[in-house]
Amino acid sequence: MSGFDETLLGEADETVRVRFVVNGRKVACEVAPRETLVDCLREKLELTGTHAGCEMGACGACLIQLDGRAVHSCLIFAVQADGARIDTIEGLSESGVIADLQAEFHRRNALQCGFCTPGMLVNAEELLSLVAQPSREQIRDALSGNYCRCTGYEAIIDAIYAVAKARSGGVTT
Amino acid sequence: MKARAFSYFRAATIDQALDAHARAGDDARFIAGGQSLVPALSLRLQAPRLLIDITHIDELRGVRREGGYLRIGALTRHCEMLTEASIAESAPLLHVAAPFVAHPAIRNRGTIGGSVALADPASEFPAMTLALDAEIEIVGPSGRRRVKADDFFIDLFETALQPGELIAAIHVPLFRADQRFAFDELARRRGDYALVGCGIMATCQGSRIEDIRISFFSVGNTPTRVKGAERALIGARLDVERIAAAQRALECDLAPPEGDEVPPAMRLHLARVLLGRLLGRLGEGA
Known about the structure:
The structure holds 2 protein chains of 2 kinds. Chain A is built from 6 helices and 5 strands, in the order E-E-H-E-E-E-H-H-H-H-H.
């Protein structure tokens, strides 16, 4: 009835098998329980578009979609995500759902070194899925957990604002 | 910046979770959203040998009205405070506080039970359980009990939770038509920890305050009710003199710690400013 097997306690270093649906494909891999999802994605699955920055949930570079919601992949162990649907920047790029955001970031130089960009895009996509036409203030607020050390944010906010307008059928400026 | 090795167990029921904790000799931690626990593990501030994942326990989910209270399951995520209609309606103080909790992606994972169990003195929700006169439903090896928020927060990161116990739900008295509330915080950046934050729940008869609960966070080792300020307001109308009296009372109610990056006098000043603003807003709602 308990479901808990005490031998587990002696096996802290042993890997366990986890399964996800990553970017629409079923994958299985062996992970140690202490391995974070961002490390698993980057090292086991070689999806290096997700960036490991602060590794404590402050910088937002590691954002991915977990069951459709933006989360920090550094703040979840891979074992916790067993059975989940995961979409990374690679999947979002290939499917074309954020093509307009990417084009607008490019057009407005909303990146320089690009380290923060995957997280920015995941966050922007979630914002626009929840709020069709956010104000600049709302965009700024939504990005409060994403650090960019190059651009000063203005171009990023411009890009997201423009895409929101375009998606709502407005004219981009 | 990597956690020490641990074993992982995903519990399907509360009994499984409690049993696993007991058999690990209490060298175990429950993990829900993990938005504070994972960094603590990565920084090796904590290094349990077993992590018990409680996020798949259905009994800890769901929001429903029950005997004059809104029962908010421990696994209710911060983002659900913004979208769940019954919370907006029956526990609006939590609804208005939620956007101030960290950042959107953190709110997608973090849970109310985890936030209250951690009892970070700078967190919004623990302090709001005090303002709301909420009760914490706890399950553990010795059964199930309910503890009033007033008796739950003991000291820095110390609560009434005993080893091996976990929070099942938060019970919030249903919001009534004769009540008013206000919430705000002062922070250097949006999403950053508050320099000072405050939530107020008042019961009014016309413009007279029948009862009021004022709870501050980021002012000391625990979320803190300011009972002197509350006493200065109960039975009175919210006029300029009363608000000033409540602000003066904070001097005795609060003792912000020394040796912090924010000097105690500054924190106290900010608390006075914030209380003045919130009581002003509460009065305008008259």
